[in-house]
Design brief:
Shape: flat
Number of helices: 15
Largest sheet: none
Strand content: under 5%
Helix content: over 70%
Length: 292
């Protein structure tokens, strides 16, 4: 039997759908506009003729950027820093969260308090720089990775997730003679894929978007990540020599095209990866924050 819906119910659903479509448009349009400008004719962009649809669409700007060694080098640096940094983050976070999730771990409360303390107090920028300098990590990749090897918040979320796992599994594994590392590797990690995927994404996005540590600790342009290059282009108006001398097939490419195209190149990997691990986000964070 089909239930007849009331006018109020239909009106409410219609309003919700219209409201959500409006939010989607507000969220999506800025990124769409950046893409449209990046593929439009540069002279049309300067004349203000580009609004919703591209004018004279072409891929000259992207071809120009892909031919620029500075762009390729900085992009490769960013990928390297993100992969190594996320790997170091996850190893340190897991090895810290697992023992703190055990009630029988002696000093568990004291060490947790020390870690939480770092969320509210820090030495500051100058002491941090002096420490990195004394460790010999200035102008190296490790200056971007080691100081932020563990996020206290992410560690607490992961620790809480580990606390929610059935203790009977660990007891049966220990009866069979498994060590703590074997329990962690064979039992805990396979059961923790949602929280691992979620925290990994948080760390990876943080490394990908990070530019301030590189601005402080790196001295050579050859080691700059793409975010520093994006900052120089968008904020400082600086581009590589190859991009400044535009002629021939790239004569119609303007600095505005280059700025918007670089933004698209920077955000594209995150946009491409996010849909594949989105299903883990709510499950991982909610379980990690509510159980325990």
């Amino acid at each position: 039997m089909k239930i007849r819906r009331s006018i109020a119910s239909i009106t409410f659903d219609t309003f919700n759908i219209a409201f959500m479509l409006g939010l989607i448009f507000i969220t999506f349009y800025p990124l769409y506009h950046i893409f449209v400008v990046s593929i439009s004719d540069g002279h049309s962009v300067l004349r203000g003729e580009v609004s919703f649809w591209p004018v004279g669409p072409n891929l000259d700007t992207y071809r120009l950027l892909l031919e620029d060694p500075a762009i390729i080098r900085s992009y490769a640096n960013t990928v390297l820093y993100t992969v190594i940094g996320t790997l170091v983050n996850m190893v340190c976070t897991i090895l810290c969260a697992y023992p703190l999730s055990k009630k029988e771990f002696y000093g568990r409360g004291f060490f947790t308090l020390l870690i939480v303390f770092t969320m509210f107090f820090s030495g500051g920028l100058i002491p941090s720089y002096l420490l990195v300098q004394k460790l010999g990590m200035v102008n190296t990749m490790w200056a971007l990775v080691v100081p932020g090897a563990i996020s206290a918040w992410n560690m607490i979320v992961m620790r809480t997730f580990f606390q929610g796992l059935p203790n009977e599994l660990f007891e049966s594994a220990r009866i069979d003679g498994a060590s703590e590392l074997l329990v962690l590797w064979r039992l805990v990690l396979p059961l923790s894929l949602p929280i691992i995927a979620t925290i990994s994404m948080f760390y990876a996005v943080g490394h990908w978007n990070s530019f301030f540590p590189a601005l402080i600790y790196l001295n050579e342009k050859a080691k700059y990540p793409v975010q520093i290059l994006l900052r120089n282009i968008v904020v400082m108006g600086q581009m590589s020599e190859q991009s400044q001398e535009l002629s021939g097939p790239y004569a119609a490419v303007t600095s505005t095209n280059i700025k918007y195209a670089v933004i698209m190149i920077v955000v594209a990997p995150i946009i491409a990866v996010y849909p594949f691990i989105q299903k883990y986000f709510i499950k991982g964070v909610m379980i990690g924050s509510l159980k325990g």
